[in-house]
Amino acid sequence: MVFVKNPVLGKVKTRLAKSLGDEKALGIYKIMLRYTRIIAMDVDCDKAVFYSDFVEAGDKWSEAGFAQQEQKGDDLGERMLNAFKYAFPLQYRNVVISRPSKTLTSIDFIGLYSKSSG
Predict the structure, then answer these.
(1) Are strands 48-51 and 2-4 parallel, antiparallel or unpaired?
(2) pLDDT digits (tens, 9 = 90+) for 58-79
(3) Quick one: pLDDT at residue 114?
(4) Where are the alpha helices (DSSP H) in 59-98?
(5) Interatomic CA distance for residues 16 and 24, integer angstroms
(6) Of 2, 26, 29, 103, which is the most exposed, with the fewest CB atoms less than 10 Å away?
(7) pTM of the prediction?
(8) CA pair distance 70, 50, nearest whole angstrom
(9) Which CATH number fits the domain that encloses residue 113?
C-alpha cells in the first residue's frame, strides 16, 4: 500500500514551497510519485494506492494496476489503521505501507515484503 497526497498545487511539499514556490514543489512531488510508482511496479505482489483526499480515477496508478482507495481518518495513525482494516478482510496476511520517496528502491519494497512474509 502506498500512501500519497493528491498532487494539488499548494498542498504538497509545503516546506520546499517556502523557498522554491508552489509550482516547483508540486513538480518535485509529481516526480517522486512517478518514481515510487515505477519502483513499486517491480515488486511481484498486489498493490494499492491510498489517496489523501480523493481517488483520481484513470490516473497513472490505475493504469499500472494499483487498486485505488481514499485514506480515511483524522490523523496518519488512524488512516494507516483503516488501510490495514481494508487489507486484512481481503485475506492479505502481509501488508506493507510506504510513501513516495526519492530514495526508495525495489529492493526496499522486496525487503519489506519479505520481512512481513516471514
Answers:
(1) parallel
(2) 899 999 999 999 999 999 999 9
(3) 47
(4) 60-63, 76-87
(5) 9
(6) 103
(7) 0.83
(8) 5
(9) 3.90.550.10
